[in-house]
Amino acid sequence: MLTEHVTLETLITDSVAKKHLPQGGLRHAVITAENAFELANERQLCVDIATKAGLLHDIGHTTWEHQGEWDYESYNYYDIHTIKGAERAHELLIFKGEDLSKARTVALAILFHSDSSPISENVELTPLQQLVFDADDMDELKDKERHNLEIDFAEALERVRRLDMLVYQSLQNCSALQCKDCNGRVGETDAEKRD
Ligand SMILES: [Fe+2]
Ligand SMILES: [Fe+2]
Protein backbone atom coordinates (compact mmCIF):
# COMPACT_ATOMS: atom_id res chain seq x y z
CA MET A 1 0.00 0.00 0.00
CA LEU A 2 2.58 2.53 1.09
CA THR A 3 4.71 2.10 -2.02
CA GLU A 4 1.75 3.52 -3.97
CA HIS A 5 0.91 6.11 -1.35
CA VAL A 6 0.34 9.65 -2.68
CA THR A 7 2.18 12.03 -0.36
CA LEU A 8 1.42 15.62 0.57
CA GLU A 9 4.79 16.52 -0.95
CA THR A 10 3.66 15.05 -4.27
CA LEU A 11 0.57 17.25 -4.12
CA ILE A 12 2.11 20.53 -2.99
CA THR A 13 4.90 20.36 -5.58
CA ASP A 14 2.50 19.88 -8.48
CA SER A 15 2.10 22.86 -10.81
CA VAL A 16 -1.68 23.01 -10.21
CA ALA A 17 -1.17 23.31 -6.45
CA LYS A 18 1.65 25.80 -6.89
CA LYS A 19 -0.60 27.95 -9.03
CA HIS A 20 -3.76 27.81 -6.92
CA LEU A 21 -2.85 27.19 -3.25
CA PRO A 22 -1.27 30.65 -2.79
CA GLN A 23 -4.64 32.22 -3.70
CA GLY A 24 -6.06 30.96 -0.43
CA GLY A 25 -2.67 31.22 1.30
CA LEU A 26 0.12 28.65 1.48
CA ARG A 27 0.52 29.22 5.23
CA HIS A 28 -3.21 28.65 5.74
CA ALA A 29 -3.13 25.45 3.64
CA VAL A 30 -0.23 23.98 5.62
CA ILE A 31 -1.55 24.96 9.04
CA THR A 32 -4.96 23.49 8.17
CA ALA A 33 -3.28 20.22 7.17
CA GLU A 34 -1.40 20.24 10.50
CA ASN A 35 -4.62 20.95 12.40
CA ALA A 36 -6.35 18.18 10.46
CA PHE A 37 -3.63 15.73 11.49
CA GLU A 38 -4.10 16.59 15.18
CA LEU A 39 -7.88 16.34 14.97
CA ALA A 40 -7.73 13.04 13.07
CA ASN A 41 -5.62 11.56 15.85
CA GLU A 42 -7.98 12.88 18.53
CA ARG A 43 -11.12 11.69 16.73
CA GLN A 44 -9.69 8.41 15.43
CA LEU A 45 -10.22 9.30 11.80
CA CYS A 46 -7.96 8.70 8.80
CA VAL A 47 -4.90 10.98 9.02
CA ASP A 48 -4.16 10.45 5.35
CA ILE A 49 -7.53 11.69 4.09
CA ALA A 50 -7.69 14.43 6.73
CA THR A 51 -4.30 15.95 5.90
CA LYS A 52 -4.90 15.83 2.14
CA ALA A 53 -8.27 17.54 2.50
CA GLY A 54 -6.73 20.06 4.91
CA LEU A 55 -3.89 20.91 2.56
CA LEU A 56 -6.11 21.23 -0.52
CA HIS A 57 -9.29 22.64 1.06
CA ASP A 58 -8.84 26.16 -0.37
CA ILE A 59 -7.36 25.19 -3.74
CA GLY A 60 -10.52 26.54 -5.38
CA HIS A 61 -9.95 30.13 -4.27
CA THR A 62 -9.58 33.05 -6.57
CA THR A 63 -8.47 36.52 -5.54
CA TRP A 64 -11.18 38.77 -4.16
CA GLU A 65 -9.01 41.81 -3.77
CA HIS A 66 -10.23 45.12 -5.00
CA GLN A 67 -7.81 48.05 -4.86
CA GLY A 68 -5.62 46.18 -2.36
CA GLU A 69 -8.48 45.22 -0.03
CA TRP A 70 -10.34 41.92 0.28
CA ASP A 71 -13.79 42.59 -1.19
CA TYR A 72 -16.07 40.74 1.24
CA GLU A 73 -19.26 41.87 -0.39
CA SER A 74 -18.30 40.23 -3.67
CA TYR A 75 -16.78 37.22 -1.91
CA ASN A 76 -19.86 36.54 0.20
CA TYR A 77 -22.14 36.80 -2.78
CA TYR A 78 -20.23 35.25 -5.64
CA ASP A 79 -17.75 32.83 -4.10
CA ILE A 80 -17.81 29.19 -5.22
CA HIS A 81 -14.36 28.17 -3.95
CA THR A 82 -15.67 25.03 -2.27
CA ILE A 83 -17.10 23.75 -5.56
CA LYS A 84 -14.06 24.66 -7.63
CA GLY A 85 -11.77 23.30 -4.94
CA ALA A 86 -13.53 19.95 -4.73
CA GLU A 87 -13.24 19.47 -8.48
CA ARG A 88 -9.67 20.75 -8.71
CA ALA A 89 -8.42 18.66 -5.78
CA HIS A 90 -10.16 15.57 -7.15
CA GLU A 91 -8.53 15.99 -10.54
CA LEU A 92 -5.11 16.51 -8.95
CA LEU A 93 -5.46 13.47 -6.70
CA ILE A 94 -6.61 11.21 -9.52
CA PHE A 95 -3.76 12.48 -11.72
CA LYS A 96 -1.31 11.49 -8.98
CA GLY A 97 -2.81 8.01 -8.75
CA GLU A 98 -4.85 8.38 -5.58
CA ASP A 99 -7.23 5.65 -4.50
CA LEU A 100 -10.64 6.49 -6.00
CA SER A 101 -12.51 6.21 -2.70
CA LYS A 102 -10.05 8.47 -0.94
CA ALA A 103 -10.15 11.02 -3.74
CA ARG A 104 -13.93 11.12 -3.50
CA THR A 105 -13.87 11.51 0.28
CA VAL A 106 -11.34 14.34 0.09
CA ALA A 107 -13.36 16.10 -2.63
CA LEU A 108 -16.59 15.92 -0.63
CA ALA A 109 -14.86 17.19 2.52
CA ILE A 110 -13.62 20.18 0.50
CA LEU A 111 -17.07 20.73 -0.98
CA PHE A 112 -18.59 21.09 2.50
CA HIS A 113 -15.68 22.71 4.38
CA SER A 114 -17.25 26.15 4.56
CA ASP A 115 -20.73 27.49 5.11
CA SER A 116 -19.90 30.38 2.79
CA SER A 117 -21.63 28.45 0.03
CA PRO A 118 -25.38 27.69 -0.10
CA ILE A 119 -24.42 24.18 -1.17
CA SER A 120 -23.69 23.41 2.51
CA GLU A 121 -27.14 24.43 3.72
CA ASN A 122 -29.03 21.60 5.41
CA VAL A 123 -26.15 19.19 4.91
CA GLU A 124 -25.37 16.88 7.80
CA LEU A 125 -21.59 16.59 7.81
CA THR A 126 -19.84 13.27 8.22
CA PRO A 127 -17.20 13.18 10.99
CA LEU A 128 -14.45 13.54 8.39
CA GLN A 129 -16.16 16.53 6.77
CA GLN A 130 -16.68 18.12 10.19
CA LEU A 131 -13.01 17.57 10.92
CA VAL A 132 -11.91 19.53 7.83
CA PHE A 133 -14.42 22.28 8.65
CA ASP A 134 -12.99 22.52 12.18
CA ALA A 135 -9.35 22.33 11.06
CA ASP A 136 -9.96 25.28 8.75
CA ASP A 137 -11.59 27.19 11.58
CA MET A 138 -8.70 26.51 13.98
CA ASP A 139 -6.43 28.90 12.10
CA GLU A 140 -6.06 31.71 14.59
CA LEU A 141 -5.88 34.25 11.81
CA LYS A 142 -9.16 35.34 10.36
CA ASP A 143 -10.45 36.59 7.05
CA LYS A 144 -8.03 38.71 5.06
CA GLU A 145 -4.93 37.88 7.13
CA ARG A 146 -5.65 34.19 6.81
CA HIS A 147 -5.45 34.38 3.05
CA ASN A 148 -2.75 37.02 2.74
CA LEU A 149 -0.08 36.21 5.32
CA GLU A 150 2.38 33.92 3.59
CA ILE A 151 5.23 31.54 4.25
CA ASP A 152 7.77 30.73 1.58
CA PHE A 153 7.54 27.53 -0.39
CA ALA A 154 10.64 26.01 1.25
CA GLU A 155 9.05 26.28 4.71
CA ALA A 156 5.75 24.87 3.42
CA LEU A 157 7.60 21.93 1.87
CA GLU A 158 9.55 21.25 5.08
CA ARG A 159 6.36 21.24 7.17
CA VAL A 160 4.54 19.04 4.66
CA ARG A 161 7.42 16.53 4.65
CA ARG A 162 7.18 16.36 8.44
CA LEU A 163 3.47 15.62 8.13
CA ASP A 164 4.17 12.97 5.49
CA MET A 165 6.43 11.17 7.97
CA LEU A 166 3.77 11.29 10.68
CA VAL A 167 1.06 10.08 8.28
CA TYR A 168 3.35 7.28 7.10
CA GLN A 169 3.86 6.14 10.70
CA SER A 170 0.13 6.30 11.41
CA LEU A 171 -0.74 4.31 8.31
CA GLN A 172 1.71 1.61 9.30
CA ASN A 173 -0.08 1.31 12.64
CA CYS A 174 -3.57 1.56 11.15
CA SER A 175 -5.81 -1.25 12.35
CA ALA A 176 -7.35 -1.56 8.88
CA LEU A 177 -3.87 -2.64 7.66
CA GLN A 178 -4.75 -1.76 4.10
CA CYS A 179 -6.75 1.24 2.98
CA LYS A 180 -8.96 -0.95 0.85
CA ASP A 181 -10.13 -2.64 4.07
CA CYS A 182 -11.97 0.51 5.10
CA ASN A 183 -12.56 1.34 1.47
CA GLY A 184 -11.62 4.96 2.05
CA ARG A 185 -14.83 5.47 3.96
CA VAL A 186 -13.32 6.39 7.29
CA GLY A 187 -15.23 9.16 8.92
CA GLU A 188 -18.60 8.35 7.47
CA THR A 189 -21.53 7.48 9.69
CA ASP A 190 -22.56 3.89 10.23
CA ALA A 191 -25.75 4.56 8.29
CA GLU A 192 -23.78 5.72 5.25
CA LYS A 193 -21.51 2.70 5.44
CA ARG A 194 -24.54 0.45 5.21
CA ASP A 195 -25.77 2.12 2.01
FE1 LIG B 1 -12.28 27.85 2.38
FE1 LIG C 1 -9.63 27.90 4.58
Question: Could you describe the 3D structure shown?
Answer:
Residues 25-141 form the HD domain. By secondary structure, the chain is mainly α. It has one domain: Hypothetical protein af1432. The chain has twelve helices and two strands. The protein has helices spanning 8-12, 15-24, 26-43, 47-56, 72-78, 81-95, 100-111, 127-137, 143-148, 153-172, 179-182, 190-194; strands at 65-66, 69-70. Strand 1 (65-66) and strand 2 form a beta hairpin. The longest helix has 20 residues, at 153-172. The radius of gyration is 16 Å and the shape is globular. The protein binds fe (ii) ion (2 copies). One fe (ii) ion binds at residues 24, 28, 32, 57-58, 136. The site of one fe (ii) ion has 6 residues, from helix 3.
Structure described in brief:
It contains twelve helices and two strands.
